[in-house]
Amino acid sequence: MDQNIHVAQFYGKSQNFTQIPRALYTKHGVKRGLRNEDHTGVLVGLTRIADVVGYRRDADGHKVNCEGTLYYRGIDISDFIKKDIYNGYLYEEACFLLLFGYLPNKKELHEFCKNISDSYELPDDFLEMNLLRMPGRNLMNKLQHALLTLYNYDEDPDNTDVYQTLLKGLNIMGKLPSIACYAYMSKVHYYDRRSLIIHYPRKDYSTAENILSMLRPDSSFSEAEAHLLDLLLFLHADHGGGTNSTFTNVVVASTDTDIYSTMSSSIGALKGPRHGGANVRASKMMEQIIDTVGLNASEKQLRDTVYRILNKNFPGTDGLVYGFGHAVYTISDPRAEIMRNYCGEVAHKKGLDKHFDFYQRFESVAKDIISAEKGMDICSNVDYYSGFCYHMLDIPRDLYTPLFVVSRLVGWLAHNLENKLYDGRIMRPATKYVGDLLPYICREER
């Protein structure tokens, strides 16, 4: 007999006592998922860190869709990449801006990068004891474990002073790329019986350069590859205080717990396929589509494929076309727009023009069909092209979402600090009780 048979029976019976009718949400004015009826988010705070714009309000207060824009401290992210000469450290420049509120000059950026690189080295025995001897089957869970373990190496881990939180956060930022790469190496060594390759980070390398260097057997990479990964990290650095993982960070931090716990909780939120894990789902979906219809598929084949996915009639899919749609962006996701341009350049250099062309053609067809089916503007989002970018960089799929963590940690930190400084209250929303009031029945009388 199934040892859980009784639990299954209890659970089945419980539906008679626990159901909450959908109509009650409207009756009591409760915003499901903290979303308004027009799909906009409920305001839960104020920020000067980042702004995500996907719609505007007309004179009557109605929502009007518009081209998407992402601002870091009031600066359009597209302005960062208009310069013709790439000098590296794009991600680090964005980190400085997000944390301190202004663009650094050359000296300030150099000093900031040195602070980060001085934190590259892991504590003594950390690699051996916590990663090599304890490989994790899921890297996101392993990152959580590793961050919580770093608590034990901190002489004053529960100090939540704003400045101390900043210092601890920068220390984590410096170590996280190595932890992610080593966690991957230990996993494939243990579970896949592959050779164990460990490269130590170089202080003269940026975050992007170190990731590529640590992942590749010969540590080599081209400038174009480093530029693309730097751009990916830059585009994922922050996305406002309303994203699930950032909101989670602020909620947990508002209890005045340690930074290792708050960052670990954010990783848990980011792991889900409805948030950061969507990049893996999108990558797997596109791989399945290409394997099924081929790179030379006709427009009719592409259209049929989209409909099959929507109707849950395509292998490996669940009715969602991953990489499309967003909670805020409507007509376009600026990160996807930027990524598409750089994708094309690297794809050409790597002889993957046909793959890139397929992505573009599928994107056009999917946007048209999904928008028509839902009766609203639907755009491709950052997850659609990010997996293709990682693939071109020979980054294993296991690391797609962990690299999202590496990038987004600075955003979590910035919002954590801002909330400590200018709000400071424990986040304590309310829920409306809609159950019945019942008398207690003695056990013998039930």
UniProtKB/TrEMBL annotation:
Keyword set, alphabetical order: Transferase
KW Glycoprotein (keyword) present: no
Name used for this protein in its record: Citrate synthase
Keyword field contains Iron: no
GO biological process, one term: carbohydrate metabolic process
Family: Belongs to the citrate synthase family.
Pathway(s) annotated for this protein in UniProt: Carbohydrate metabolism; tricarboxylic acid cycle
Pfam families the UniProt entry points to: Citrate_synt
